[in-house]
Amino acid sequence: MTGDLTALGATQPGLGYLTGGYGNLLAQIARRNYPNYSAGVSLNIPLRNRAAQSDYVTSLIEIRQNELTLQKNMNQIRVDVRNAVIGLQQARARYDSSVQARILQQQTLEADQKKYTFGATTVYQVVQDQRDLATAQSAEVQAMANYSHARIAYDQALGKTLEVNNVSLDEALLGNVSRASSIPANLPAQEKK
User: Fold this and answer.
1) When you count CB atoms within 10 A of the terminal residue's CB, does the N or C end of the chain come out lower?
2) What is the DSSP letter of 179?
3) Angle at 80 between CA 75 and CA 81, to 5 degrees
4) What's the predicted TM-score (pTM) here?
5) E strands within 4-156?
6) What is the DSSP code (8-state) at residue 192?
7) Tens of pLDDT, residues 27-73
8) Over 50: is that where the pLDDT of 169 sits?
């Protein structure tokens, strides 16, 4: 209720408390015409900022957890690569041994066929050798398939799958292929039985 004397306050003396002015302000405070005056001061001094401290500790814990997760992932990658290398070596050894087994079985069949022509063995033995050769050939094909799968797992563990298969992400994004497909356009016809 402060300010200059208004025209209303000057013409009506009964409303003196509405006239305004600094003098009138002090008089109103002394008379207590308006007893609802209040004043306040707010002072906030953080002696120990517990919220900031807890946020800091939480951030430190998250950093440590992220470091542990990173280390765990790195260890898992190492294990995956080692397992892929071991699997590839074992698959190669199995393939090499199956090739040798097939070669030996083929030599056995040839030897027994010669014996049969001279009458030194029976047809049953030759048929068994043919069966064993077919089994050895099947095992060789399976070993080659296992080696191919081990090679794919090795490339995947190293993250080289796209490189090995000559796949370019730039070409894929542009929709252009710079080399011809290795898959034949016309697949061979199946033999009719």
Assistant:
1) C
2) S
3) 100
4) 0.61
5) none
6) P
7) 767 776 666 656 778 877 777 888 888 999 999 999 999 999 999 99
8) yes
On the CB side of 115, how many CA atoms lie within 13 Å of its CA? Answer: 14
For 90-115, letters b (16+ CB in 10 Å) and e give ebeebbeebeebbeebeebbeebeee
pLDDT in tens, 89-126: 999 999 999 999 999 999 999 999 999 999 999 999 99
Q: How far is CA 33 from CA 26, 27, 28, 93, in A?
A: 11, 9, 6, 106
Place of tokens 């030194």: 120
Q: Which one-letter amino acid corresponds to residue 185?
A: A
Tokens of 157: 């563990």
* Rounded-to-integer distance, Cα 144 and Cα 9, Å: 110
